[in-house]
Write a structure and sequence with these properties.
With 323 residues, this protein is mainly beta. It has helices at residues 7-32, 35-39, 240-256, and strands at 58-61, 66-73, 76-81, 86-89, 99-101, 106-113, 133-143, 149-168, 171-184, 195-202, 207-214, 222-230, 263-267, 272-283, 289-299, 302-312, 318-319. Helix content is 15%, strand content 45%.
Length: 323
């Protein structure tokens, strides 16, 4: 039997092969994430750390859905949505919730950084900066009401593409654009992309303001935007009379204040100051009147912003449109 490669030549060829492999990987990821070079940090946003959520805060979206942070702990952020479903996950929203349950199903997800030969694992996207990229494998399993188990695998590649100024229901925001691609895990990126997911993250509200899901023809695309961030007033004051006064102030400000005029409520004993400012008025498609507003709660000198939209209902009260 003839061997055409002796040890020395084989070693050299392996080194050449390894070099080519690394070069191909580099070209692949440069091509995949080339959009970042085109957009860049045009708004000059500062490097942004991971979101820090506060228990009790509610986020309301354009499709009428909403979700509330019910617990913040070392195990993650726990949410309850408009259907009463509970889920827990990382504050890094590019990862799906790792534990979830509905009335008929419950499931778990595990994540790990993807590794390739001659290519080390990637770091997280946070703190956000243009060009940051990461890749990870997702493995999920869920159980139906009969206890039947199902499993799936996915591979994700994500990047911070750039910055954009957006106008959504809740207001105008400077945002980071984050994009992800999802592939069937066993084929990695050599197969057809199953999903493109894009988030626009606004540091001022500590949450994304737009989420787009493009399923690349596999199913109907979905998109939603933020229309309101609602505070849990009990985290700012335990006095029920104060809460009633703050709720009344909200109604009065939207009913009577001109655009740009701030209605101020104060409780010096609790070092609590609240301002509600109408930003714009418009007609809802159903003919009703709505107002975009900004509510700022300052507790012991620390301000918290809660932008949103409220519409006047049949009873004459201003309410956040949601399910």
């Amino acid at each position: 039997m003839r061997v055409s490669i002796i040890n020395g030549d084989f070693s050299k060829q392996m080194k050449v092969f390894a070099g080519i492999h690394v070069l191909l990987l580099a070209l692949f990821f440069c091509g995949e994430f080339s959009e970042a070079a085109k957009l860049g940090n045009t708004l000059g946003l500062k490097t942004t750390p991971m979101p820090k959520y506060q228990a009790g805060t509610t986020f309301v979206y354009s499709d009428g859905s909403w979700e509330t942070v019910i617990k913040v702990g070392p195990e993650g952020i726990t949410w309850r949505n408009h259907r009463g479903s509970i889920s827990t996950g990382s504050p890094d929203f590019i990862y799906k919730r790792f534990k979830w349950q509905t009335k008929k199903r419950y499931g778990y997800r595990d994540f790990k950084q993807t590794t390739f030969i001659m290519s080390p694992p990637t770091p997280p996207l946070w703190p956000l900066e243009v060009g940051n990229k990461t890749r990870f494998d997702e493995r999920g399993r869920w159980f139906d009401e009969l206890g039947v188990e199902s499993r799936y695998d996915s591979f994700w590649s994500c990047e911070v593409i750039g910055t954009e100024k957006l106008s959504v229901g809740a207001g105008d925001f400077d945002t980071w654009k984050i994009t992800c691609k999802r592939y069937p895990n066993k084929f990695r990126s050599t197969s057809k992309t199953r999903e493109y997911r894009t988030w626009y993250y606004a540091p001022i509200v500590n949450h994304w303001v737009v989420e787009d899901r493009d399923y690349n023809g596999y199913r109907e695309n979905r998109s939603k935007e933020l229309i309101a961030v609602l505070p849990d007033l009990q985290t700012f004051t335990a006095d029920e009379n104060d809460i009633l006064s703050i709720q009344k102030q909200f109604q009065n400000a939207l009913e009577a204040n001109q655009i740009g005029d701030t209605n101020v409520w104060e409780n010096f004993n609790q070092q609590l100051v609240i301002g509600v400012t109408p930003v714009k008025s418009f007609k809802h498609p159903n003919g009703g009147i709505c107002r975009q507003y900004l509510q700022v709660l300052a507790k012991e000198g620390l301000p918290y912003e809660f932008p949103g939209i409220a519409c006047r209902n049949e009873k004459g009260r201003w309410a956040i449109p949601r399910r």
